[in-house]
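Reviewer 2 asked us to include a model.

Predict the structure of this chain.
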Amino acid sequence: MRPRMRAAEAGASPGTLARRLVKQLPRLGVQVVDLQPGTAVVSRRAARIEAFPLGRGLNVVVDSAITRRRRESPASFLSSLLDRLPMLGLTVTEAGFAAVVSAAGSRLKAQEVSPGVVVVTDPAVVRRHRHQQDKALSAYLLMQQILEVFARYQVNVVIDVGANKGQYARSLRRAGYKGRIASIEPVGREFEELSRRAANDPLWSVHRFALGREDGSLELNVVPGTLSSALPASEFGAERYEKLQHATVETVPLRRLGDVMDEILADVEDPRPYLKIDTQGFDLEVFGGLGDRAHDIVAMQSEVAFMQIYEGMPRMPESLAVYEGAGFEVAGFYPVTRERATARVLEFDCLMVRADSLVRDAAPDPVVPDATAAPAVSGAAG
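Predicted model (C-alpha cells):
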C-alpha cells in the first residue's frame, strides 16, 4: 500500500510535501511522532514512542516498550512502505526499532545507542552548538539516573538545597516524580519566585534560610541568576563571570540541616530522603551541618569542582573524601560547566547512593523524563 498524492501536490516544495506525507502515514498502520516540521519518527503502531528535543539539532527517541529487550528492525515490519518513500520525495534513515522520515536531502543522522533508544542529530547544527548539546544531553542522562535511584531506594522526599527559583523541583515534577519536595533558598528575590511556583503544589514546601555548620547569620554575595554564593569570587571566577565582580551583600539566617530535618520531614511517613545540594562552593558546609543525620539520607547529589570559581571552594578530591567518609558511594558524574576554549570541565554533578539503604525487592520501573526536565543540572552555562 502506498500513500496517495493529489495532482495539486506535484508542484509542492519538498518540505511541504514531506509534511503532507508524514500526516498520511498513521493511516498505513504505523506510529508517527513528529520531531520538527516535515520530520517524523516512524515505528510499529504497537510501539510506545516518545521524542525528546534536547537542543538544536539533537533529539532522543525512546520506545519504552522495548528498552529492556531488542526486537526486529523497522525493515522487517515497514519495508514495503519505507522502500517507496524516497520515490515520493522523502529521505528515510533507519535506526534499530524506528525510522526517521524527512524531506529529501535531509542530513539528519539516527543512531541506536541501546535497545529502544535512538539519538537523532542534525550534524551541522550540532557542530555549531556543541557546547549546549553536551550540556543538554548530560542533563537528560542525569535525570534518567535520578529516576532510577528514586525507584531503587524508594525515595519519597527530596531536600532541595539551593533551590533558586525552583528549576530543579519543577524538572522533577515534569519527569514524573510525585513525592514530597522541600526547597530551601535564602536569597529574597529568588525565594519570592520559588514561593509563587510552589504555591499550587501541596507536596512542595519552601523554606527561606541558608544552611551551614552552625546556627547564626550569613552574608551572601548576590548576583542575578544561579551564581550567588556565601564565598567571594576567585580571580578565575571573576574573570570568567563578570557579574561576580558586581555582587551585592544580603544577610540571611543560617541554620544547620540536622536541626531542621524534623521540621522538613514532619509530614512524611517513613521518610527516605534524597538530598540535592547546589550552593556554589558551600556544599560541604551544608553537608557538615547534617551531623549524624547524614545516615538518614539514602542518596544525594552535589556539585563537585575541578576549577575554583569561588575563594575557598573545595575541589573534587576533598568533597569526595567527605561524602565517602559518611558512607556514600559514587553512582555517576555529569558535567555541569565546561570551558569552551580549553574543553576543561569546571564542575560535575555527582550522584551518590548509600548502598546499605537499598531496598532489595524494589524493581525499578523505567521512567522516561520529559525533555523539559533537563535543568536537573542547574549550574551556569559555560
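Residues 1-14, 67-72, 366-382 have pLDDT under 50 and may be disordered. The two ends are 51 Å apart (CA to CA). We have added this to the supplementary material.
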